[in-house]
Amino acid sequence: MVLAPMALDSLDLARWQFGITTVYHFFLVPLTIGLAPLVAAMESLWLRTRNPQWLTATKFFGKLFLINFALGVATGIVQEFQFGMNWSEYSRFVGNIFGAPLAFEALLAFFMESTFLGLWIFGWDRLSPRLHNLCMWMVALGTNVSAFFILAANSWMQHPVGAVVNPETGRAELDGVGGFFAVLGNPILWTTLVHVIASAFLVAGAVVLGVSVWWMTRAAAAGQDYEARELWRRLTRFGAVAMILAGALTAGSGHMQGQLVAEEQPAKMAAAEMLCHTESGAGFTVAAFGSCQDGSAVHLVTVPYVYSFMATNDPDAEVMGLADAQQMYAERYGQGTADADRTDYTPDEMVAFWSFRLMIGLGMTSMAIGLLALWLTRGNRVVTSPRLGAAALWTMWLPFIACTFGWIFTEMGRQPWVVVPNLADPVSQVRMLTADGVSTVVAPGTVLASMVIFTLLYAVLGVIWFVLLRRYVREGVRTQTEESVELVGRAASRRAPVPVLSAMTGVFYNNPHRIKAMTVVPALLLVALGLDALTGWFLAWRRRRAGTEQGEGANAADAALRRSENPEGRASVARIIMSSPVVVGALVLILGVASSMTAVRADVRGAFSPKHGQSRLVASPDELAMIKRLSTELPPDAYVLGDPVAGTAMLPFLAGGSPVWMFAGQADSDADGLYLRTHFRDIHFDPKVCEIVRRHRITHFYSDQPQRFNGVANEKLRPGLYDVDVSSGFTLVDQGGSAAVYRIDLCWLSSGQ
Fold first, then answer.
1. What is the pLDDT of residues 206-238, one digit of tens each?
2. What is the pLDDT of residue 95?
3. Mean pLDDT across the stretch 176-183?
4. Which residues are paired to 700 by β-bridges?
5. Residue 608, SS3?
6. Of 113, 219, 348, 682, which sits most exposed with the smallest number of CB within 10 A?
């Protein structure tokens, strides 16, 4: 098969490639821009209210943000590559200007958001809560600053300011420092910035609302009223408010932007309304087909005066049509170099017309969905219809599509210009036709090959993005509604030992002071051996000396005979030689223990003679009475989770129960134990908690107020076992003093069995 020459036109292929990669990339960008501040706001609300639902929401939507950010970065890099490969003439002409805001975006904004995002990811347990939250606010700032510089470059292409053409080089250059500030102060830039950021909040709010409504209906269907009401309803209204405010701001900024575009790019707005001829009191056409150029344009349902009002705030104002716009551009800028006969300054009418309406229609529909969500959740109501949940999940894509059509309108509507001339500056030479910006040295086949490769690569990345989002959205923050679970009694009949939470897995003597103290035992044994060797050597030496004195008058043969009959001297020498390292090692150990005795005494003093404010070493009389009553109140196979310092260690001796941990620190060697120790209080929202509880057949929870032991607050060592919300999903078994025992119903009865 032979391809037609037009099929391999470099200009068309380069435009298609850039359009495909831009649509892919910008499908992800609004969610990154909008979700970063929303996640930061969720974490701030958690810090202010200490409501665990906000922490759960922060981690859940933070995970979605990270997925989107990573894929957004991967898809954005290719665009810069295309400037050099497919659009080298454009880069040569405007590189001195266009590259300045892009450099600021990479060196300032991107590095800032990447650095603070890394701190936020890995700083949960290493930074203070407020500093950790500040990191996410810095990420949000970085994403929006990045958007500012990117839009500064794009807005300059839509309305070039602060630039002059160097007659020697034929390149556009910044008009000094003032030119750079003119680029940053471009009126098109600021209206576009507000419009883009507001629409990004609309996208992020739609994601929060859609996912939350979907999970709210699932939780309600599973009988999890607490989760549906306290978590997902709260997030639904949070997302709805964001959508409404963002939608209103998007509409307002879009109106202002449209007026600027009508002034600076009249052909674009005329094409958006299929306005063939200049007229006063121009109306807004709901639907149109055909083309003004060949006279086949058909207008359906036109509302009078609306377009004139949109363009000028005056319903009777005169607005330019496509025919007059074509004539104006031809008179000012000639027929151009792209076509020897005639340059068509009219953008694609159908693309501009319908992309403009889809942008507006889908955006307003998204705002209406936010209003509907607020209405459905008024008065503490919960959405229970599965159909509404599914609809919310599907409709959350509407603002994504609206943003995509908005950019299609923006970029396609400015054609045939890649740098639109500034109509307010008729003598300016800073302009460029799209046909003049394409590379002249890259063969069409090369462009086609790269377009196919990038399209396939982006398709793979798009699938990965969707699969990851779908996976983690469906995973949610709990699993109780996704599959049935066994009841406590049924599971108890098949109850097996819990190796990961057993006493054999923990190492109690992991305190360095305790280790040093325990070295006393082997040290004493070594010292005893050394002293025995020294004593034997000394006695042997005394006997040899006494034998020598007695044998002074005797003959040498008799002395030799006595030494051969009693070789104790030689044995003693060998013993001392062999025991010398033992003695040295024992001395070293003793010195080491002695050096740590101050710390050891402090440990002992803190444990057995606690100061005021530290933990009691024994339970109060009321708590002890409760523990004794548990012998008849708890099932024989009950497995109790709790802080051993708070009393669970006494269960096997006073009540016959089985605690999860016999002593403090026992969970250090198993992942499940560590997770429960830090996250059990998130049981209402974290699916992994119930998963571990069911896996290890844990049926009860021993609750007590926070204490201090060894000068350390227990809630800092085992935070997940304190401040647990037992208002729902738990049944009180007994209480005594500050302690109480609850049956864990949440993880066992949520399936309705």
1. 999 999 999 888 888 877 788 888 888 899 999
2. 80
3. 83
4. 640, 743
5. helix
6. 348
% helix / strand / coil in the chain, to the nearest 5?
65, 5, 25
Q: Global pTM?
A: 0.64
Amino acid 572 reads: S
Partners of 288 in beta bridges: 299
User: Each residue of 701-737: pLDDT tens digit?
Assistant: 998 887 766 556 667 778 888 888 888 889 898 988 8
670 with 594, same domain: the answer is: no
Q: Quote the number of domains for the chain.
A: 2
Pairing of strands 658-659, 639-641: parallel
Do 577 and 634 lie in a common domain? no
pLDDT tens column, 412-451: 888 888 888 888 876 677 888 888 888 877 778 888 888 8
Q: Is 162 helix (H, G, I), strand (E, B) or coil?
A: coil
Last residue of a domain, one of 565, 584, 608: 608
SS3 588: helix
For residue 565, the enclosing domain spans 519-608
Give the sign of the dihedral formed by CA 99, CA 103, CA 109, CA 115. positive
- 690 belongs to a structural domain: yes
Q: How far apart are CA 194 and CA 74, in angstroms?
A: 25
* Closest residue by Cα to residue 58 from 47, 42, 44: 42
* Cβ-contact 76, 32 below 8 angstroms: no
Q: What is the C-alpha to C-alpha distance for residues 112 and 127, in angstroms, rounded to an integer?
A: 18
One domain for residues 603 and 729: no
List of residues 6+ apart from 71 with CB closer than 8 A: 28, 461, 464, 465
CA 698/CA 640 separation, integer angstroms: 6
How far is residue 657's CA from residue 129's CA, in Å, rounded to a whole number? Answer: 38
